[in-house]
Amino acid sequence: MKISLDGKRALVTGANSGIGQAIAQGLARAGALVAINYVTRPEAAEQVARGIGAGKALTVEADVTDERQVQAMFGKLDQAWGGLDVLVNCAGIDGKRAFGWEVDCETWRRVIEVNLFGAFNCARQALQRMVQQKSGVVLNVSSVHEVIPWSGYSAYTASKAGLAMLTKTLAQEAAPHGVRVLAIAPGAIRTPINEEVWSDHSMLNDLLAKIPEGRMGSVEDVADVAVLLASDAARYMTGSSVYVDGGMTLFPSFTHGG
Length: 258
Ligand code: BGC
Description:
- The protein has helices at 18-29, 42-52, 67-81, 105-133, 154-174, 195-198, 201-208, 219-230, and strands at 9-12, 33-38, 57-61, 86-89, 136-141, 179-186, 241-244.
- It has 258 residues and is of the alpha/beta class.
- Beta-D-glucopyranose binds next to loops.
């Protein structure tokens, strides 16, 4: 079986760093045209686009939490490509670590706005087009924290659990129209979001003890699965969350005792 995205038009949000960047590069390697969305650091987005190659990538600025900006971004893609086949919602933040009774409401709300409303805002625009063309895939980048509670990150975990149910509901709505909606749930992937942890010896060891495979994931570990899910190889999959986590969701503390 050959996995190919030849001729597919894809938009990846938050594609100027981390997992989003690797997914954009992976989709392009599989043959897709890719739009690199960003909200900060335009030079990083340009660099990803240049790496993919002229004529195969473009950059699009939009804050995913802003309805007008997102509408304008999709309008640009309509003009450039006449439609969209794959949306990957990857833009995300984790906020500041603080107990629920200490965190300020603005920080809490912002995490939900970017991770959950932002994904919905983009999915809404994408689905309007995909339902009409009777094909397409929306892939939401969730987290193992859609099922694992995480002290200090109540907004993040709530946003990711919400994203899982958003995925299922949109999948149910879109399936009769030939459109698939899936979530990919990474575990501990080495990216800038968790640099504080992997750059500290004892914090890294604590994290590794939570991963049965005994290593942090690479962004390519996630990107390869994203390409598979976006392709026709996954044509009978919709609504589920696919964990790419080296076993983090397998209750590793139960490897012993119990
Ligand atoms: C977070 C990372 C964390 C991982 C495992 C991800 O969703 O973004 O910071 O290392 O979950 O806890």
